[in-house]
């Protein structure tokens, strides 16, 4: 390829120097990165020099279809190198978790008519024991639970959560949130409130969660909801809604909750008011 680009024939003439006499092979790949690529073709090894971003070298390897692993890359900054290798490993690992654990939970929610899914990842040793008469009051009963210590350890790292979120977005899912939240596992104690009411206090553990949707507008209603809110300062409901006005001396329009009490005939008008 390089021979055709820079050889004497240059049939297609698609390599032209810029104002500095330099040839731009690929947009975004600088001369220092391309020198590393040429060294790979000579000796089979990518030696990343100091001052060159490992992330940029990784992008160049993807462009030139060169395997980026420890067998082909040597770098002085081991932290940056291992970070890129961890991203590759996390992506491969989460693809397995996704097919074996996450997708079945999403399918279960979809079969019940849901348009979104909230998944909590517990360890293999976690035990959920709720009081049937006093369950947790926060809607945890609608969550899907995955028991997997491996997936729990995977989500402990924020970098892995970022990789998983990017992969889920590539698969067409929307409104993705991945984080750590408290989840109630078992009853800790019961408090008696005045009036004989009982309040159950649960033990909460910090566990990873995944929240996502497969619809474009998750959680949004497609119809208009009208609500009538009573105004404490304006007794006239119509005036409070801005749909009318009250003239001096007119009888105020009754409130909604007063209509039930107006079963008898209307009172006669006073002498000061004109006939209705």
UniProtKB/TrEMBL annotation:
Membrane-crossing residue ranges in chain numbering: none
Biological process per Gene Ontology, one example term: positive regulation of phosphorylation
Gene3D superfamilies given in the database record: Potassium Channel Kv1.1, Chain A
Domain spans labelled BTBD10/KCTD20 BTB/POZ: 1-82
Keywords: Cytoplasm
Region (Disordered): 242-276
Domain of life per record: Eukaryota
InterPro entries according to UniProt: BTBD10/KCTD20, BTBD10/KCTD20_BTB/POZ, SKP1/BTB/POZ_sf
UniProt feature, compositional bias: Pro residues: 265-276
Designated name of the protein: BTB/POZ domain-containing protein KCTD20
Species, as recorded: Chanos chanos
């Amino acid at each position: 390829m390089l021979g055709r680009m820079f050889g004497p024939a240059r049939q297609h003439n698609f390599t032209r120097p810029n104002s500095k006499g330099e040839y731009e092979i690929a947009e975004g790949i600088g001369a220092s990165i391309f020198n590393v690529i040429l060294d790979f073709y000579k000796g089979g090894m990518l030696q990343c020099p100091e001052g060159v971003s490992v992330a940029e070298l990784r992008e160049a390897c993807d462009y030139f279809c060169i395997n980026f692993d420890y067998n082909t890359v040597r770098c002085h900054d081991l932290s940056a190198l291992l970070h890129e290798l961890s991203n590759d490993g996390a992506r491969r690992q989460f693809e397995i978790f996704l097919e074996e654990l996450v997708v079945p939970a999403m399918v279960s929610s979809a079969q019940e008519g849901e348009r979104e899914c909230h998944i909590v990842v517990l360890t293999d040793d976690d035990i959920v024991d709720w009081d049937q008469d006093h369950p947790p009051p926060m809607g945890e009963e609608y969550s899907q639970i995955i028991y997997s210590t491996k997936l729990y350890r995977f989500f402990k790292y924020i970098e892995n959560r970022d990789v998983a979120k990017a992969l889920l977005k590539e698969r067409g899912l929307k409104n993705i949130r991945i984080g750590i939240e408290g989840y109630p596992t078992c009853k800790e104690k019961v408090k008696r409130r005045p009036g004989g009411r009982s309040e159950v206090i649960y033990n909460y553990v910090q566990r990873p969660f995944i929240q996502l949707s497969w619809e474009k507008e998750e959680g949004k209603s497609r119809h208009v909801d009208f609500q009538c809110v009573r105004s404490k300062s304006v007794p006239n409901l119509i005036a409070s809604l801005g749909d009318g006005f009250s003239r001096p001396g007119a009888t105020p329009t009754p409130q909604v909750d007063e209509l039930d009490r107006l079963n008898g005939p209307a009172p006669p008008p006073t002498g000061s008011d004109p006939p209705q």
